Structure formats: C-alpha cells, structure tokens
C-alpha cells in the first residue's frame, strides 16, 4: 500500500512538471535551440529523477508507516485529465473549417453577403 501511494503521488507530480514544461518549451527556440530536442532531453532527465525518487522515497515511507501505521481510508484521490496536443484540431480539420467559413460568407468567390 505504501509503495503504491508513493508511486502515485510522485507520478502525479511528474505529470504536472511535464505539463508545465510542455507549456513553455516553445520559448527555448528564442535561445537558438531545438524545442523538440530540449523537451525530449528534459523529459528523459525528469523520468530518471522520478525513478530515483521512487527508489529513495519508498523505504522512508515504509519506515514511517511502521511507526505511525497508515489508514487506507485517509488516502486522497489523484485525478488525471486527458487533453489533446491539438486543441484546435488537425491541420486538415482547420483548413476545411476555414474553407467552409469562407464559402458560407461567399468571400471565397469574392462576393460579400449584405
């Protein structure tokens, strides 16, 4: 139980850190670096750190649980949200929506609707 709780908490923190990294990784290109390469390298580093943290933290929490005894009913829930990396749709979907919008307003044909 202690191991699962520890992994769950550390994994949740890891996912939050990766989400923050993804939100701001585009700024790396201003420094002249490749954002994709930097993102992948950083995520790899964070994952290796997660593995080390799990290995270090479980024995500490097991020792603490033996002295304090844990109650599974006091365990909070961890929520994971799924989102898309393409919030505005794929390139093809955006092109089709744009063309449909132009056809509806007839600006595609050079005619304006009054």
Describe the protein's topology.
Blueprint: H1 2-24, H2 35-68, H3 91-105
Helix pairs in contact: 1-2
Description:
The protein is mainly alpha-helical and 114 residues long. 63% of the residues lie in helices and 0% in strands. It has three helices and no strands. The chain has helices at residues 2-24, 35-68, 91-105. The longest helix is centred in the middle third of the chain and has 34 residues, at 35-68. The radius of gyration is 24 Å and the shape is elongated. The chain starts with a helix and ends in a 9-residue tail after the last helix. The model has no long low-confidence stretch (mean pLDDT 80).
The unreliable regions are none
Sheet with most strands: none
Compressed to H and E, one letter per element, the order equals HHH
* Helical residue percent band: 55-70%
Number of helices: 3
Number of strands: 0
Rg estimate, integer Å: 24 Å
Task: Please summarize what this structure is.
Helix content is 63%, strand content 0%. With 114 residues, the protein is mainly α. It starts with a helix and ends in a 9-residue tail after the last helix.
Summary keywords:
114 residues, 3 helices, 0% strand
């Amino acid at each position: 139980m202690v191991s699962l709780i520890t992994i769950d908490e550390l994994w949740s923190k890891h996912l939050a850190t990766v989400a923050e990294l993804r939100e701001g990784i585009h700024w790396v290109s201003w420094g002249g670096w490749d954002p994709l390469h930097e993102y992948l390298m950083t995520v790899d580093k964070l994952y290796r750190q997660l593995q080390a943290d799990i290995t270090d933290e479980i024995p500490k929490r097991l020792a603490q649980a033996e002295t304090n005894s844990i109650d599974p009913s006091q365990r909070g829930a961890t929520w994971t949200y799924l989102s898309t990396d393409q919030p505005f749709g794929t390139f093809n979907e955006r092109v089709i929506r744009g063309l449909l919008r132009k056809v509806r307003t007839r600006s595609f044909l050079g005619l304006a609707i009054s």
